[in-house]
């Protein structure tokens, strides 16, 4: 991880706070989602995984509108005139963002319709349109509609006696045009596609399928073969072809699909709330009722007068309307992951038990896990190494160990059926002091966390809901154990949520340690979280919002000082997002001083790399693969004594100033080398890595002719297996 001495480009005439040196947060997020979309278009990716990425792209975009676009529109409504970091006003930001979104969704739907659907047919996945079906299939679906769908539907007329209905968030709808048979009057109705029913209606395999391999003879019927793995149609098409059942006696003129996205952010006056849990519940009820509409996706065939009516009734501008030439709501493509076709998926991966655990017989009622940690710090790397046999086992051991006196932990996102939850309840039943901070304000997990809080409270766990004005995003566990006449504290400090499901999908690292200073720091932190402590200093930990910004600034400055002293400076950071302008300015200063900087940023990055005189010595890559890159690792060369950290904080203003985050130094030299090796593998990636350009665009790396592909995640799986 060392670097050679780089040229100094110290330019005092350059204003490093000039907006031209900063990229739009929204546009850089869209570029991240464009890289996700590329995975859906990359022929090297197995077909069902491509459908998965197509679904992830759509789901990501839904959340982007519900949160980021909604926030910009709120600024516009409030007549906020303050320029964003890239120099644009909120109105300008919305316009350029809307243009980019339309480009991406056009690209997405063109690829799905012209490439992926034909590829699905070739592999025996027959996602058909209703007009492709023959009589036997239509007869089956007619019965299915009458028995399974018709009773659930509620057609809603729109006329002077029936006001325009409420359209729920992310709902798929049919705009139905009807003509009265007597008066000839044209009427409008809305039919909501029930979200409780499957999006794709599967046909029994014994019913003959249509062979569409030859477009000129697609009506020719063939017997089902072993290669026909799945056949079905979108549910909205089945509803559309049975509208006469919903409007008997009327003439159905036409129908068009549309989909609505609403502002889903919630605001809570925390300082005025007597009970934060009840206040969050009230805000969730308001969210379910729905915020303002921020997007309407419409069928490209929808005529202008119906679009205009939707626009007026839902109180949006034409800028909120996005035309889609194809099937709306492609997030449902994720459902095809359940198909039992392993040859069309990534090879299965089973997390490995770390080698240092294999020599111990670690059982639920054994103290061997604690003996292992007492011997030496150790690192876990998920999903390459087992989450259940490390993190969950640690908490389960603590719950059952008679020597353990107390367990304290933070929960940001987890599942209601997790082993961790059961272990915490068991620990409380065993008479241990159990304290859990559950962050009720974890976006889109609020209701789940409310349910968890109540379940834990009923079991006797001390539950804290978080701090007023701050989100608690840190991922830490503290176990207090009596050993002879002494008390020893064991800790786990990680980069990811205590969530077994995401641990198999996200890459994260975690440290197990019983170093006294870390235990003392976490004790102080929990006193801060659960009581009235105003802790202002920590022995080892970087804690937001107390000291992390100051210490990161100091670490960057040290590298600058080394370069100015004629030595080399080196910074390598891996995280999800780099947005904070103060940190970016300091990185520009470091680059000007000759510090070599590599940034591995999965998503948003507002820094411009490679700008002459500003960021000549900064490189940015993004790695997109089968696992979501989620770990945060920070490396500072510090002369000949590298300093390495892991933690929960990205370099975003919210993570440094408005959230409780914990970053721990790595003091074990072997673990430090392991983390440096991980960073080195990522920097050498030529399969999953994308190089960021000065203008904010990205170019995917490709192996040179005759050179093997170096895929970070494939290499780390292989290393874990060995």
How is this structure best described in words?
- With 722 residues, this protein is of the alpha/beta class.
- The chain has three domains: 19-23 and 543-721, Endonuclease, Chain A, CATH 3.30.870.10; 47-344, polyphosphate kinase like (2-Layer Sandwich), CATH 3.30.1840.10; 355-539, 2-Layer Sandwich (Endonuclease, Chain A).
- The chain is 36% helix and 21% strand.
- It is built from 20 helices and 29 strands.
- Strands 16, 20, 21, 22, 23, 25, 26, 27, 28 and 29 form a ten-stranded mixed beta sheet that branches. Strands 12, 13, 14, 15, 17, 18, 19 and 24 form an eight-stranded mixed beta sheet that branches. A six-stranded mixed beta sheet has the order 2-4-3-9-10-11, with helices on both faces.
- Helix 2 (47-77) runs antiparallel to helix 3 (90-122) and helix 11 (388-400) runs parallel beside helix 12 (419-429).
- The longest helix is centred in the first third of the chain and has 33 residues, at 90-122.
- The radius of gyration is 28 Å and the shape is globular.
- It starts with 24 loop residues before the first helix and ends with a helix.
